[in-house]
Each structure stands twice: as C-alpha cells, then as structure tokens.
Specification:
Elements: H1 44-47, H2 61-76, H3 90-110, E1 119-127, E2 133-142, E3 146-156, E4 159-167
Antiparallel strand pairs: 1-2, 2-3, 3-4
Helix pairs in contact: 2-3
Length: about 170
C-alpha cells in the first residue's frame, strides 16, 4: 500500500448503489483490537530496578568504606553530594543533600569554617538479611570524634546502592 493510499473499502460501505448492501441497515460495532506492545524498550522490566543476587556483585566492603567516609565529608562540607550519587538511591541522595544544606547553614550562622576531617575506618559489622541485601555499621575514628554510619546496601542494576543511611 502506498503511503497516501486509502484502503479499497474505506468510506464506500454506506454509499447508495454500492452492490447489494442495504443502505439503511447499521453494521454491528467492530471489536477494537487491543495492541500489546512487545517492544523491550517500552518495558518496565528493561528500565526499572533490577535486583541482583549477592554472588553477582562485587565485595561490598569497599563500597561501605567509601560511602561511610564520603557521607561524613558531605555533611562536614568538604565533599559534594554529587560525588556519591551513583552509590545512592534517589531518596537517600535527596536526604543527604538536605542534611548537608542544614549543616552548611548552621556553620554559616555560627561563623564556623568547613574543615577537612581525617577519619580512619575502624570496625565494620555486616549482616545479610536476604540475598542481595547488606546491612552494615561502619565505625569511623577521627581525631576529635568517632562516628557510626549505618548503611543498607541493595544490589540494584548490577551495583551496590545505599537504600538507607544514617550517621550517628
């Protein structure tokens, strides 16, 4: 069929003198075909979250250490939250940005300058409540203060991503 072509029976069904058709009789309503899209590019399974088994992911210890120190540095004002965005889910990322903004406003009100704090990763306790999920507490030892960072990692889209995060 040509691009501008019209099907042969288009619009001719109700014209007088069109064969033996009864002009006054109404046609029964045609059933509408429901089109099922099978294109994988439009599928939620392709674009949505894909949870991965722990055995298909790298060792989470490096991610936990990086996240724990990075989150404390973001709150202290010495690191941008964008640098950790690939390790965080959207909700955790937004919460971290809010916390960092609140800490920055507090420092500005009290005339405190952001200072780089050097932390050493102390003990780390890790549990796995189910496959593809790691819950951990990372102790950070600093010169002035020790901090505990609680992190829940889930295997999403072939990498560990923090779905929950808390700094104590």
């Amino acid at each position: 069929m040509k691009a501008n072509a019209v099907p042969e029976d288009f619009g001719n069904e109700d014209l007088p003198g069109n064969g033996d058709k009864d002009v006054t009789a109404k046609k029964p309503a045609a059933k509408k075909k429901i089109r099922n899209v099978r294109n994988p590019l439009e599928s939620e399974a392709f674009f949505g979250k894909q949870f991965i088994s722990s055995k298909d992911l790298p060792n989470p210890n490096d991610s936990l250490k990086l996240l724990a120190t990075g989150v404390v540095e973001v709150i202290a004002g010495t690191r941008q939250a964008d640098q950790l965005s690939r390790f965080l889910t959207d909700g955790v990322y937004q919460s971290l940005q809010i916390k960092a903004r609140q800490a920055r406003e507090y420092r500005e009100e009290n005339g405190i300058k952001a200072q780089h704090q050097k932390f050493a990763v102390g003990s780390m306790r890790t549990e796995s409540p189910r496959d593809g999920v790691i819950e951990s507490v990372v102790m950070l030892n600093g010169q002035r203060r020790n901090r505990a960072v609680v992190i829940r990692l889930e295997g999403i889209n072939h990498r560990w991503r923090a779905t929950s995060l808390s700094v104590l």
